[in-house]
Amino acid sequence: MPDITVTGLVKSFGSTRALDNVSFTVADKELFTLLGPSGCGKSTTLMSIAGFQHPDAGRIDCGDTTYFDADTKTDLPAEDRNLGIVFQSYAIWPHMTVFDNVAFPLRVRKTRRAELRTKVEQSLELLEIAKLSGRYPHELSGGQQQRVALARAIVYSPTVLLLDEPFSNLDAKLRERARVWLKDLQHSLGLTTIFVTHDQDEALSMSDRILVMNEGHILQTGTPQEIYHHPSHRFVASFVGQCNLLTGNLSRTSPDSHQLLIAGTPAPLTLAATTSTGADTVTVAIRPEAITLLPEDQPRAENCWPAEIRSVEFLGDHYLYRLRVGTVDLIAATASAPPTGPIALYLPPDALVDVDVT
Ligand SMILES: Nc1ncnc2c1ncn2[C@@H]1O[C@H](COP(=O)(O)OP(=O)(O)OP(=O)(O)O)[C@@H](O)[C@H]1O
């Protein structure tokens, strides 16, 4: 399977800049996710790769084939791009059986009858819906219908699979199962896959790499671990998982050591590292589970603040605390029950990640 390279994609709808210089490469056999809030440009990117949207500028290559190049006015028709597509709105045909729905792309390609039957049966087996082959869509659950859509997308051995919120009709439990199942399928077929979602859990659990977008811009690209533990932007930190953002004035205590003084807190925080190159105001992010709650009479030497517990929620596998330090509100998460009596928070220096230098 080839790489997909998107270079300098720009697309405007009237005064809305849906894509503003979007560039990325998806590697062979990779499951690559476009993640971001509604309206950030995910679908426009995917539709441009599919050939259903025509960018104003930029280029899209799939291996050695140029799908689109605004400079040379290349725009390969969608049907010649050999992509497997499952869009939210890409409904299966209600008047056709499961078999005929899955056979449809092969009939369009004038595949011979015996080969068509073999390929459809293989796809149905792979998606574990062979027993449903004679049923009509209204006789299927939402999850089964989405499997039919996927079977139809992979039946003609596409070069690349494009999926736009393919689990949107599933309930929470089925969605979780569908993630595991799709990841296994993608892996076993070795399909280069571009997946669009606004669901951070889905993105973190399935992706080899994630691209986070907002307002037509790419903010960060990285593995799920990099995106979660080292967000490079405050938007990424708060969009992907819960996060505390603390803004303060930076001072250098030695060539390698920095402290951040945050208004309303009792003592400056020591940072393990900063990307600041001289800026005074810095925002750091710390995940709730990176904060340790201690009895107040056992403080550590640094990065310890006395705190007041405002509320505690028990969420099954963890507790979520709303805390106040001076005039600053924070959230923390721990696996065990809260300590009794007055508490202090410990914010480990290496868990404080620069997200914005202003
Ligand atoms: N055909 C269109 N005409 C006008 N504006 C459009 C059109 N398609 C998209 N847009 C606008 O372009 C921007 C990006 O839209 P896009 O559908 O790519 O976002 P998205 O991230 O996929 O959102 P969602 O998660 O809600 O599907 C939005 O502001 C949207 O309103």
UniProtKB/TrEMBL annotation:
UniProt cross-references to InterPro entries, sorted A to Z: AAA+_ATPase, ABC_transporter-like_ATP-bd, ABC_transporter-like_CS, ABC_transpr_MalK/UgpC-like, Mo/tungstate-bd_C_term_dom, P-loop_NTPase, Transp-assoc_OB_typ2
SUPFAM superfamilies referenced in this protein's UniProt entry, alphabetically: MOP-like, P-loop containing nucleoside triphosphate hydrolases
GO molecular function terms listed in the Swiss-Prot or TrEMBL record: ATP binding
Highest taxon of source: Bacteria
Domain spans labelled ABC transporter: 4-240
Keywords, in A-Z order: ATP-binding, Nucleotide-binding, Transport
Transmembrane stretches, start-end: none
Name of this chain's protein: ABC transporter ATP-binding protein
The species this protein was found in: Jatrophihabitans lederbergiae
